[in-house]
Here is the input.
Amino acid sequence: MKKQLLTLALLAVAGTAGAQQLPNGSFDEGNWVDCVPWTSGGNTSKYGTQPKSWKISNVIGFLGQGKTIVGKEDAKGRTGKAVCVYNSPNTASSKGAIVPGYVTLGTPWNTAIAPDENGKDGGTFGGISFKNKPDALRFYYKRSVTGTNTRSSVVAYLWNGTTTQKKVPGNIGFTVKKVDMADRDINVLKMSRDGHQGGSLFGEHKLIAKIESYTTEQPTEWTEWTIPFDYVAENIGETPEKINVIFAASDYFNSSNVTDGVSMSIDDVELVYYSTLSSLKVNGTDIKLQDGVYEYNGVGSIAKDCVVATPTSQFATVAYSYDKNVVTVTVTANDGTSKEYKVVFPSAESIATNYKNQINVDFVRNVTSSANDVVISANSDNTINFKLNNFAFEGTVVGDILVPKVQIAWNGDKVHLTSKQNITIESEAFTNLKNMPMTLDADVDKDKNLTASLDIMWNSQKIGVSVCKMPFDYSIDGTALTIKNGEVKAADYSTNLVAGLAMGMTSIDLSGVTIADENFYDNVVAAYGNNAVYFVGDNNVEGDNIVKNGQAQTLALIDEDESMPFGSAFDFTAAAVSYDRAFKTGTDYVQSFVLPFGFTVPAGTTVAELSSVNGDNLVFKPVAETVANKPYLVVITDKDFINKLTNVQVKATTGANLTTTVDGVSHIGSYTAQNVANVYGYANGKFVKANTGSVKPFRTYIKVAGTQAAPMAFGVNIEGTVTGINNATTAATAKEAIYNLQGVRVSGDLKHLTKGVYIVNGQKVVVK
Here is the structure.
């Protein structure tokens, strides 16, 4: 279990996963093994135990006397086993000598010449093979003191080559055997040999790095301690061959400072290879690094060499890669492990969209306002193009303002846009808007709200353009405008905004906003005529075509302006109708209409719908009740019959079917002025074919399906009367010579012929 937890811990530490590590740094590998203390005399006796791959400085004594154990297993490690070393008295010593406890990757040894113990010495020689350059040594420790608090030691060193010292005494007794000792600690560390046993040195080595640290702290809980290696400047380019690590309860290099009652427990020892950064600059600005955080916002705009990173380790390398909006810094430690830092600049794609904004234009202290679309598009180099559509100046639409290749950067959590360049506006209204100095300063927040200011110099005058959030939300569906979630008031030009948006609209829904402009009706509604329907909710607004809570006082339809469209997105009730169309009266005069409401046909008025096709005649059937949004023909004697209607039920025109189709012939109504082609328009009692033409609002026309025969004109039959065909009669049983309208004689009698108009004795006859 402890191995698994330690592995996870190592993976979480930058630069340690996969690195060359010390063996059994957790002290958990298998059972502890017997300790066989080394002596120059070749001791083979076991005394105490020690963790695999490590050695504890237990003493075997002399002739069975003075055996001393100075290390043991600590069962209460961080997550498993740990090692505890301690100083302990040598009971065989007449002078009360204290044996220092330490654990090492090398080989511990000691010497003393009996009986007076003169010439005592000891330490560690050798180590293990090792080839990397770690940055630090990290471990956890606890420490306790029951006597004099002398300092405990941590020693580690890296080297290559071999230095051997001759004639080093390596056992305890009256006769001490001397040996040649390779890589003795004080020799590798190039420390003074004064007071130490042994002869001359031979061989060569290079000390590459070392640790020599001490503590008198007494933590009772496991405490992390990370100690950096101190690399020797002249040997920093050398490759290590060996390493040794020593943890000592005592003052390791000072035997006179070893006291009883001092112990130190060690666990989870590891070498650290830093693949982290010590500093990060973005466009010259220092970024404050945080532990465990590897992603930071960029400062300024992305460009080559805009990021400069300094690794924590002097042996790590740094590489940079550039994406559209991310600079990735890869830090590779000496052992090959790596860590990625990302410097994230704002993404052009993330803000590329169509923004609906209020635009205020200040020129010589005269401020005008309009609703405009601002389009931000992304370029492949992470810049953006800023385009203000249909820029209006002094009440005239000038054209589009395009600012290309704008740099983007962070402004807190906003995306900041800034540019200084000369621009040209392609305009039909103006010809001298070229090479104008312009400054753009803009922000897009995390909710995709755009604010901007543009200063444009034109003929030595500044045009100040501010782009701000609309005071309300709006949507457009065809010719239906909905204003919602805000307030309409003159003080912030919102009345003008509504007026601008209302251009071309046939219904405006204001039920979701508060209207705080007492002149709203005059400034907005009246400006666009009463042919549009306005839904104003509970606002205190009165007037024609104003619908509140589903009720309107008057539905006013304008016919004088032939270009004025009509439309409603909702059903409502109108108490009265005002329609200024100049209907012509007379029983022989046929007119067409389509209206958004139905009504009961008054006496003296004939309203008829297309019911059948009889050859070149269209047969219309009179109706007693009309239906909203359906095309009709009408013959009237009272030109004001529409204006006498009350409480009409107005139906929505949005999505309504304005067509009646019979036998491949369609009668079509229109609420807009439009150009049409290959249709039949009503004139002089007939529907006459026209290759091109136009239709007025509230009028109708005829269109024939592509497979249907298409005569040059259709006569109109209302209640059995064919208009436009003089002296027409209804066919009965005539047996005279019969011709069709193309002059071809047909056989049979009239009652057996198909429907249509025929010539009999020079007279036109209708067969029903």
Remarks:
- DSSP finds five helices and 59 strands in the chain.
